[in-house]
Amino acid sequence: MQMTKEQAAQLITGALNRYFAIGPQEATPDQMYKACATVARDILLERRNANNAAVKAKQHKRLFYFSIEFLLGRSLKNNLHNIGITDSMNKALLDMGFELDSLYELEPDAGLGNGGLGRLAACYLDAMASQDLPAYGFSILYEYGLFRQKIVEGWQTELPDIWLPGGDVWLIPRADLTFDVRFGGHVQEVWTPDGLRVELVDYDEVEAVPYDMMVSGASETSVSLLRLWRAREKRKFDMNLFSRGDYASAVATNTNAEAISMVLYPADHHVEGQSLRLKQQYFLVSASLQYITKYHFHRYRTFENFAEKVAIHINDTHPALCIPELMRILLDDYHLSWDEAFAQIKQCMAYTNHTVMSEALEKWPEELMRNLLPRVYQIIAELNKRFCGEVWARYPGDWDRAARMALINGGQVRMANLAIVGSHAVNGVSALHSDILKADTFRDFYQWNPEQFHNVTNGIAHRRWLCQCNPGLTSLLTECIGDGFVKHPEALEKFRAYESDAGVLARLGDIKSENKVAFASMVAERQGQLIPTDAMFDVQVKRLHEYKRQLLNALHIFALYRKLRDNPNMDFAPRVFIFGAKAAPGYQMAKRIINFIVNLGEQIQRDKRTCDKLHVVFMENYCVSVAERLMPAAEVSEQISLAGKEASGTGNMKLMINGALTLGTMDGANVEIHQAVGDDNIFIFGLRTEEVEEKWRQGYNATYYYQRNPELKAAIDELAVGVNGVAFPELAHYLLVGDYGVADPYMCLADYDEYANAHQRAAELYADPAHWNRMSLHNIAGAGAFAADRAILEYARDIWKIEPLRDK
Question: Where would I find the H helices in 645-727?
Answer without folding.
Answer: 651-657, 670-677, 689-698, 702-708, 710-721
